[in-house]
Specification:
The chain is 45% helix and 16% strand. The protein has 246 residues and is of the alpha/beta class.
Length: 246
């Protein structure tokens, strides 16, 4: 990863933060991207204080112009773009379909699905000028199955897999690999809204008997974007403690 330039959206916390720290430890130039400016700048400063190379760019991933500006910033700052991790996402409104608000549906689709299209549109453009690259899109176990009350989230994460596979087919010949990761329920700020009883229920859905850790997902993201995964393209990798094996 030495001197590779990587963009990570949603990297002020959770999986994105763990990924940013891991890439930086291995010598990558990391562009921290998040709508949370204070937290994002703090993580950037922490990485740089440890001898890593990181820069922060505030981004609303639901806006295509922000995603275009993010890629331009990475190229201007570090000269190229080698890797992109499209990680930013929200849990979204929890309601059955009839009770789901139109605004709630549109918001989760915009942030969890449309943002990845915007990201790849500009990331791939930059990578083509660089002779290739690797993109890792963060889907979910709910990209493979449904979950009552989360129609928008599940639909978006299913869409991420289809979008990943299509983009992989379109750009494989140009040396750009595009893969998706499907985390199970991970112990991140995204689960803060759940009470203890609901958390216990969610833990029980994982045969391994616990929630996942951000660092465990970061390891898969890193591997997929590395040369060690050079024959891996258009794939979907659940990391879920056995959730989907039931």
């Amino acid at each position: 990863m030495k001197n590779k330039t990587v963009i990570i959206t949603g990297s002020a916390s959770g999986i994105g933060k763990a990924s940013a720290e891991l890439y930086a430890q291995l010598g990558a130039n990391v562009v921290i991207s998040d709508i949370q400016e204070v937290e994002g700048k703090a993580i950037t400063a922490a990485i740089n204080s440890k001898g890593g190379k990181a820069s922060f760019f505030k981004t609303d991933v639901s806006k295509p112009e922000d995603m275009q500006a993010l890629v331009a910033f990475a190229v201007k700052t570090y000269g190229k773009l080698d890797i992109a991790v499209n990680n930013a996402g929200i849990g979204g409104e929890l309601n059955p379909i009839v009770e789901m608000s139109i605004e709630g549906w549109q918001k989760v689709i915009s942030i969890n699905l449309s943002s990845l299209f915007y990201g790849m549109k500009y990331q791939i453009e930059a990578m083509l000028k660089n002779g290739g690259g690797s993109i890792v899109n963060i889907s979910s176990i709910l990209g493979a199955v449904g979950f009552a009350g989360s129609s928008g989230y599940s639909a978006a994460k299913h869409g991420v897999i289809g979008l990943t596979q299509t983009a992989a087919l379109e750009y494989a010949a140009q040396n750009i690999r595009i893969n998706a990761v499907g985390p199970g329920f991970i112990d991140t700020p995204l689960l803060k809204a759940l009470d203890d009883e609901m958390k216990k229920q969610i833990v029980s859905l994982h045969p391994i008997g616990r929630l996942g850790k951000s660092e465990e997902i970061a390891e898969m993201i890193l591997w997929l974007s590395s040369d060690k995964a050079s024959f891996v393209n258009g794939s979907y990798h659940p990391i879920d403690g056995g959730y989907l094996a039931k």
